Amino acid sequence: VAKKKDGNKAIFYDEKISIEKNKKLRIEARLRKAIKNKQIEVYYQPKIDAKKDKMTGVEALLRWTDDELGFVPPDKFIAVAEETGLINPLWEIAMKNACSKVTKWNEGRVEPLSLAVNFSAKQFQDPCYLVRQVREILADCGLAPEHFEIEITESTLLFNSKETIRALKGLQEYGISISIDDFGTGYSSLSYLKTLPINSLKIDRSFIQDIQEDHSNSEIAETVIHLARGLRLHVIAEGVEEEYQKEFLMKNDCYHMQGYLFSKPVCAEELERLLG
Ligand code: C2E
Ligand code: MG
Ligand code: MG
Ligand code: MG
């Protein structure tokens, strides 16, 4: 009987894997179609200077609603894209759309908006190609590199680290800013902060939540703010949803923020309304 039970378990496990695999294959097939048919959209989430009460820039975030699968969250389809070689075409959609929109929005603005785009670790495998492509798209759209920012996570720094550093150095020399997204959630050592080409730390929203009740969260947020100041890095908090979180951050001299308190990610037309 015991043997039979184990056998069943094994089959069950295999089935589970193949269901997962089929799901991924389905997402991949639909994603290919969506890219071809231009069904992927770019949304924009404002970045705010809370001291000046002004929008300083936007982050581009991809959105996909499929006819069959419905709304697929970016975390999900980006993971599939990374595994299937679709990350570059997706990234191009984000880059080209966002760069041309922000260039347009900046016409006649006294303080131009900066644009942040999320880059995936996979893209750093070919640093020369990446640097060339970024420069080309910025030049084509007419967006100054000084108004462009790359968001990467700590895991990107661990992955292909030599190539990644080379690419980041090239991009930074060109005038682009490099920002560490979801800072504090990775496993990398802090020593990279003094050697790597980094301009900015983005405090992960998990540390901003319950900042009032959870003493360790507020302690971590404060520590990151102090660390950034000591290293002369820019610091921004993500996931600010409540007034008390904003007040806490301002009291700790962190004025740059992003979150639902100010605005959710919105489509281009909606962002134009916010600017207008
Ligand atoms: P991320 O870059 O850390 O983006 C922040 C995520 O938090 C976004 O989720 C945003 O909608 C959400 N968010 C912003 N403010 C708040 C808030 O106040 N409260 C809460 N609860 N959430 C907030 P989204 O758009 O679902 O994106 C998830 C992740 O997918 C992004 O995390 C990023 O890692 C990835 N992603 C999105 N677009 C791209 C892209 O074009 N390329 C790459 N490589 N990754 C992307
Ligand atoms: Mg980001
Ligand atoms: Mg983040
Ligand atoms: Mg994230």
TrEMBL record:
Annotated signal peptide: none
Single biological process term from Gene Ontology: signal transduction
Keyword terms of this UniProt record: Cell membrane, Membrane
Protein name per the record: EAL domain-containing protein
The keyword Transcription belongs to this UniProt entry's keyword annotation: no
Biological classification of the source: Bacteria, Bacillati, Bacillota, Bacilli, Bacillales
Membrane-crossing residue ranges in chain numbering: none
Location(s), subcellular: Cell membrane
Major localization class: membrane
